[in-house]
What does this fold into?
Amino acid sequence: MSISTLIILVLIGVLAGILSGFVGVGGGIIIVPGLVYIMGMDQHHAQGTSLAVLLLPVGILAVMNYYRAGTVDIKAAALIAVAFVAGGYLGSRWSLALPEIAVKRVFGALMLLAALKLILSK
It folds into this structure.
């Protein structure tokens, strides 16, 4: 794995962690698009890898299915998971320092952007 790939995976993990701590989102909204659009993974690999990041707390059985199908990048998932922890800490600190309305607006804007991307993609 190249240094640039490592940096990108860590940045995806930190961003997902920050947004998870900040507005309660991360996996499907940040990690999957990051792996698809930045890392060039196909959708199944991105979904399997994202689930591997959240393996124990969310979807161990789903990850087992993706892993058996050969669509989980364990190294990428491990790097993102470590960065996700740090990002989650930072995001929660930032979120708690802001008024609730500001956090709601950030969350709403993220959801709207994700929805528009899905609706308008070919």
